[in-house]
């Protein structure tokens, strides 16, 4: 079975009672260049090593119920008496011991018990497990079955360089999917192929992707786009787009620019707008990460499409809620939209500004 890829079901009794197992009629011999179905003991004794041998015609099987697909393609077994596990030698001995006395080769099982009856699936499966358990232990034995021989042969053929189509034919699979399940790659082969692949230059592409991969223009653009810290306006626009996409009832912002989004209806609006008394000021970039509670400003240039009536139109006053060297969460202390205070938002820390008066406070008007 290690060299024929026969299924266990092609050797044992079929539950329907039909002959779907190998019989002596499945076995023919090629001796001296002549095909012989009923060889004599003299003919078998005259077999030449490496030249003569046996032919086994596959029986009907699970994937080939009518015997039209695989049965015409016999298994070729060359006679090598010096090989202790040579299949043709074992079959010659079986032919000498039993076969030459068989009168009806079409119904006599090739592999039978002492009573001449075909083995059962359970008996041979249990015998294999018992032998493996005796040699290697129960845990190892539980990993194998007669189907392991088919997988082993397919994997050995693959390691020998046989292409998949020929392996499928030799092992009698109806579809390539079965081959891919049972044909395994060895560890050494896998490592060798990966090592070869690491040194290969890959230049394949599909025609529709040529504009994308030539010069990697699009990849460069994406890298440039997402590897930089975004301005607050872009962050706001992106976050608002996500809100609109996931919640169709969220407030829409105008398409151009961005502003700190208005509070949702569930957030209480401030009952009063603090009176603004702005003295002449200038806004300067901060030099370090602000502490929570710091009163700073964000410049009007961040949201140029929205009115600014504080800090003489230069920007909006904010309270820092938290901050890192990269980003800061801020609260607008005066800005309102339809009576609602702007929602807390996140900006780049570097966009926050210090509020400095232009003149000393004691020189400024009321």
Secondary-structure-derived class: alpha+beta
Q: How many angstroms separate the termini? A: 105 Å
Question: How many beta-strand segments?
Answer: 12
> Radius of gyration from the CA trace?
42 Å
Name the shape in a single word. rod-shaped
Taking all residues together, what is the mean pLDDT? 78
Structure description:
By secondary structure, the protein is an alpha+beta fold. It contains eleven helices and twelve strands. The chain has helices at about 40-45, 85-95, 120-135, 140, 145-160, 165-170, 175-180, 185-200, 210-215, 215-225, 230-245; strands at about 25-30, 35, 55, 75-80, 280-285, 295-300, 315-325, 325-330, 335, 340, 345-350, 350-355. The chain has a six-stranded antiparallel beta sheet with strand order 5-12-6-7-8-11. Strands 2-1-3-4 form a four-stranded antiparallel beta sheet, covered by helices on one side. It is rod-shaped, with a radius of gyration of 42 Å. The N and C termini lie far apart (about 105 Å).
Key attributes of the depicted protein:
366 residues; alpha+beta; four-stranded antiparallel beta sheet; 12 strands
Task: Give the topology, please.
Elements: E1 27-31, E2 34-36, H1 41-45, E3 53-56, E4 75-78, H2 87-97, H3 121-136, H4 138-141, H5 147-159, H6 164-170, H7 176-182, H8 187-198, H9 210-213, H10 217-226, H11 232-246, E5 281-285, E6 295-299, E7 315-323, E8 327-332, E9 336-337, E10 340-341, E11 345-348, E12 352-357
Antiparallel strand pairs: 1-2, 1-3, 3-4, 5-12, 6-7, 6-12, 7-8, 8-11, 9-10
Could you provide a short overview of the structure?
This protein has 366 residues and is α+β, with helices and mostly antiparallel strands.
